[in-house]
Amino acid sequence: MLPAAGSVLGIDVGGSLTRRSTAVCRLSWTPHSVDWVIERSTAEPARRAATIARVAGGHGLLAAALDGPLTAGLQPTDAYRAAERMLTRGLGRLIGKPGQSNVPVGRLLNAQANACARDVLALGLLAAARHDQAIDAAAIVEAFPSSYLGLMLADPAGIAVQRGTRSDRYFELLAGNGLLADLLASLLPGRHAVTSVQALRNHDDRAALICALTALGLAAGDYCAVGDAQGWIVLPPLRFIAPWAQALLRANMVTGFGGCLITGNLGQPSLF
Question: In angstroms, rounded to a whole number, what is the distance separating the alpha carbons of residues 37 and 87?
C-alpha cells in the first residue's frame, strides 16, 4: 500500500523549555533506500514549530505519530483511557505502562502533544486519514515507544531494567538482535537502510524513530491499535508482537477491561 517513495514523521514530545527533549524524525524512502533525519528542540512554541517545519522540509507526509495522548479533534482529555488500560493490565508489570491521562503529568503531556500536533497539521503536508480509528481528517496518530518496543520482546521478565532507562534498554536489545531492522525491512522491503538503527545513542532520538516507525506502519496499513473513542495507541504489526503479549492483549479485550484491539489493513479492521 506504500508508494515507491515517501515520508512519514515521528515526534517524541517533550515539555522542557530549556532542554531539547522534543525530538522530530522524518523517515523517508526511495525505491532502493530508506533513511531518516532527526532534530531536537525545546518546547518553546516558536522554536518547536520551526524545528518540525525544518525536519518535514516541505515533503508530503503519509502519516505522523506523536508520543503523547491524542483524542478526537485534539481535545484536552482528563480520563484514564481504555488505550492506557489495555497496555497496563498484565503488561505493566512486565514492560511498564503508559502514564494516565487523568493525572497532572498526563494532562501536561496531552497539552504538549496537542500543541505539537497542531504544528504538524499547520504545515498542510499530511495525507488524509484512511484508517477507521482516525482522530482527525489527516493521518495523525498516537504512539507510545516503550510499549511498542516492549511488546516485541520474546521474554521481558528476564530483562533487568530501571524505570528511567526501560525504553533505551528495549531499543538496544531489539536493535542488537536485528528485530527493528526486520520490522523496517518488512514494511519497506527491498530497500537498503542508509543508517543503522544501532547508530542511534540519544534517548529522545530513539523514541522519535520509533514514533516514525509507528507512522510508517499506519501508512502501510500494517499495524495494531488499542483504544476506543477516547483515543487509540498504534502498535507494531501483529506478527511482530510476541505471543505472550498477544495473549495478554486478547485477555484484556475479552474481559472488557480495556478497549478494542484492532489489527488489519486500512479500511478493513478486525479484532484478533
Answer: 29
C-alpha cell at 137: 481528517
**Confidence at residue 271, expressed as pLDDT on a 0 to 100 scale:** 56
Can you list the alpha helix ranges (DSSP code H) found in 57-127? 82-86, 92-95, 104-122
Alpha-carbon torsion, ordered 41, 80, 161, 18, to 10 deg: 20
What the block records as the C-alpha cell of 210 is: 520509533
pLDDT tops 90 at residue 258: no
Integer Cα distance of 190 and 263 in angstroms: 24
| Grid coordinates belonging to 79 | 480520563
Q: Alpha-carbon distance 212 to 52, whole Å?
A: 13
pTM of the model: 0.95
Residue 47 pLDDT class (50, 70, 90 cuts): very high
DSSP string of 216-236? HHHHHT-EEEEEETTEEEEE-
d(CA 170, CA 117): 26
Q: At what angle do helices 203-220 and 166-176 cross, to 10 degrees?
A: 60
> What letter represents residue 82's amino acid?
A
What's the CA angle centered on 99, arms 93 and 100, to 5 degrees?
110
* CA–CA dist 269, 189 (Å, integer): 23
CA distance 25 to 57: 11
